[in-house]
What does this fold into?
Amino acid sequence: MPPGDERRRKEREDLILGRHPVQEALRAGRPLQRLLLARGVRGSLLAELKELARKQGVPVQEWERAALDRLAGGAAHQGVVAVAAGHRYAEVGELLAAARARGEDPFLVVLDGVEDPHNLGSVLRTAEAVGVHGVIIPRHRAVGLTPTVLKVAAGAAEYVPVARVTNLSRTLEELKEAGLWVVGGDQEGKELWTQV
It folds into this structure.
């Protein structure tokens, strides 16, 4: 098994790694079981994390850095790990309803076969920046919301809901029936998405 596959297999979807991803999870009110800090780590951001955790009733524990390294499976964590209640995936209907509740036409991104957590994290970050109402990913043969995805997304996963579906083709048909246009992207394309 290639090293990247082994790392993805080991990643737990209930961990949030890194100072800023944990900060955004706390700011967004995401339910956390506990906040783990490397023993001896200090700084104003860490003081803010502790205060946010205290206000939300999230227990804060100090762990040895080696123990955090093992928990994170070798991924970078900057001395900050949050144990979440598991990231909740949205339903496609929720994405549509949320957009319409804001009086906006739904703007969704549908991804097929994105297996690299860095790519999904980058897409989430960009999606949040351009006002996407939600991202749809397949349940199989694609990366989910792992700690690496959440870290690379730098907090965007707390604001852009992600739906996981079994059949992308059927989902695209349902979106068309709901009145959405489907436009495919290609890295060789000549037009920018903003021009289409």
User: Anything to note?
Assistant: The CA atoms of residues 26 and 102 lie 24 Å apart.
